[in-house]
Amino acid sequence: MKTAYIFPGQGAQFVGMGKDLYDLNEETKALFEKANEILGFRITDIMFNGTEDELKQTKVTQPAIFLHSVILAKALGDKFQPAMVAGHSLGEFSALVSAGALSFEDGLRLVAKRANAMQKATELEPGTMAAILGLDDVIVEEACEQVDDIVVAANYNCPGQLVISGTVSGVDKACEKLLEAGAKRALKLNVGGAFHSPLMEAAKQELEAAIMDVEIQIPVCPIYQNYDALPYQDPTAIKDNLIAQLTGAVRWTQSVETMLADGAESFVEVGPGTVLQGLVKKVNRQIPTSSAVLEG
């Protein structure tokens, strides 16, 4: 059975996440404690007992979701047998660590740097995002191109759901156009900035050096990367795609379609929430999806 393992991105967090993994055994507890040490603050306190607002800060959210996903994948042991992996935005880093391309420590450091760089970029260039429901991708792309402001297609989540990203005025103008064009809804998202848009250029430059510096091994299976939805195992190409991801779109719909075309027979979501399973079902209702769970 060809199983695709998929890893969620920002937005999947919840208070209490990862506590069961922390309590599971000495090995998982040690990984969380190592993370506290690397990050320089006790992220476990916020994950297990913090407030939603504390958990919602980008510098906390991204490492928290990464830790939940990666430690869960490790805890699965021999049950974790991916034929292919993919992650949504931040989830790409979780996928790379779980597939043996990045060490746990390097992965966490990169995620922390990425979160801080994105936070800084949003303060430098304020922006926002909006989910457009019920229109073909092409119509959304064309409307964005017609706006005389920065706004781009950012997250191709599933057929009929595309998130746009850009300056506040750019997103507002695009939403107006898209509602006129027949969008069912244009929902402004509660996010800190214009992720996956040209407004993240400062973050991309900051992260580029860190990514180029890190050692990436050949993963145990292909990783389908957000940037172009194609499978990769070459470390150099993986690095280039990770760098391009910050200002490029998350092509999740296309990634799922490519994995299905390449023989994926089931999808297992590793980490908090079930958002990605829902998106996979929108691409192919018949395909089995599930959450990674520990026995016992």
Topology of helices and strands:
Elements: E1 3-7, H1 19-22, H2 26-39, H3 43-49, H4 52-56, H5 58-76, E2 84-87, H6 91-98, H7 104-124, E3 128-133, H8 137-146, E4 151-158, E5 161-166, H9 168-180, E6 185-188, H10 201-213, E7 223-224, E8 231-232, H11 235-245, H12 252-261, E9 266-269, H13 275-283, E10 289-291
Parallel strand pairs: 1-2, 1-9, 9-10
Antiparallel strand pairs: 3-5, 3-6, 4-5, 7-8
Structural class determined from secondary elements? alpha/beta
Could you give the count of β-strands? 10
The major beta sheet can be summarized as: 4 strands, parallel
Q: Roughly how many Å is the radius of gyration? A: 18 Å
- General form: globular
Strand content: 5-15%
- How far apart the termini lie comes to 23 Å
Low-confidence stretches: none
The strands making up the biggest β-sheet line up spatially as 2-1-9-10
Mean pLDDT over the full residue set: 96
- What's the number of helices? 13
Q: What is the H/E string?
A: EHHHHHEHHEHEEHEHEEHHEHE
Helix amount? 40-55%
Keywords: Acyltransferase, Transferase
GO molecular function: [acyl-carrier-protein] S-malonyltransferase activity
Catalytic activity: holo-[ACP] + malonyl-CoA = malonyl-[ACP] + CoA
EC number: 2.3.1.39
